[in-house]
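The instructor's notes for this session suggest beginning with a concrete chain rather than abstract definitions. Hand out the sequence below and ask the class to guess, before any prediction is shown, which regions might be ordered.
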Amino acid sequence: MSFNKEIAKAYQIGLAGIVVMSTVPVAIKWVSADPWVIGFCRLIIATTALYFLRPAIKALNKLTTKDYLILAALGLCFGLHWITYFFAIKLGSATIAVIATISTYGLYLSVAGRYFLGHAVKPYHWFALLLGIAGTVLVGGQFDLNSNALIGFILGIVSGCFYGTLPIIHQKSTHLNGDIRTFGQFAGALVIFTFCIPLGDWQIKNDDWLGLIYLGLVGTVVAHSLWVYAVTALPTTVSGLIKYLYIPLTATLSYFILDEKLTALQLLGGVIVISGCILGVLGDKIFNRK
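After discussion, reveal the predicted structure:
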């Protein structure tokens, strides 16, 4: 990968997206509403905001049947990712849910990107991936494998697979405007959550509304718009590794906001994760100097 200006810009935007995203699991855990209510409210706010703020979305009526199928695939994967992810957070802790999801995301995306997109996987990519996995184990620390925590961890793994499919679809459909793809991703997921409305508890507490608005505007519109741009421009070997930064950032916020404790080993794990990300992104520049 040539570390040119366009890649550097995508990398910076991706990092910004990860920083914003790292607040989402904490907000989801903090809000008392159930996953069905959280998902539906986030998507209603996000799709409405995008439709009125992004003029390119008005061109939806000019798309082909194949384009609509692409948007449907994005919506399906995104919706299933959110359902499993939200329940992983609610059943366990924000940190453990992120560890399970992002660890699976990075591994799945690195391998799938090689076969579906032809991205080269070099030895330092594999080493960086191992660093990311090792770091996540340390960040996870020890947690009680009771039924809810175990189910949450498994759901996090499933969520990571659905999430890892999204960058592949985005890179296979770059002929579509990024705003349209982002809107399709949200709108398709909204259809799923609309059918699940009867499953939610709609007696929303007044304190939850601020959190739901934040999740809809900042945690969804801003964060995912930035991330869609990044994963479209960056090789999956890079975006998959950058995503690991989600873990130490969320763990830190969870410590201060949710009182989820961090040990010395967890802090060491965060450093290892970040080291793996740096190696994965700058490896080509480091090892291929002329």
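Then share the key points. The chain has one domain: 5-287. Residues 5-287 form one domain.
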